[in-house]
Design goal:
The chain is mainly alpha-helical and about 140 residues long. The chain has helices at about 1-20, 35-40, 45-55, 90-95, 100-105, 130-140.
Amino acid sequence: MRKLTTFCAAVVAAGALSGALTMPTASAGDTLPTDKECSKLKSADAETKGWCTAINRRKGNCLACHIVTTKKTWPAALPPGGNVAPPLLSMQQRFPDKAKLRAQVWDATQSNPHSVMPPFGRHKMLTEGEIDAIVAWLYTI
């Protein structure tokens, strides 16, 4: 069993390394940080804080339900997202009023009583600042 575990770890590491070598290069501003990189950030703009909150499994965990379409390079370590909820794309066009988007994140049941989206603000799952950061990030996609 130990040999199998070591073999699997080696295969995963080799795959990650080969993927890193074949990934197109992008400037730091074009690449989204992973959850691990987010935890090491000492300071970040509102959009990056929103992204980091959205992908954090203990916070927003948006990728559990939503697939995200972004112009930036997707971190290879992250799954593409779920297919339970609507995809997160063209958010400015879908929510021209930023306050309505914020209200949706704060408590989606206000606009749709049958929504299964957690009421992040009403249940205090996220702080007001975290919700604002998520909305700032959503407006970039």
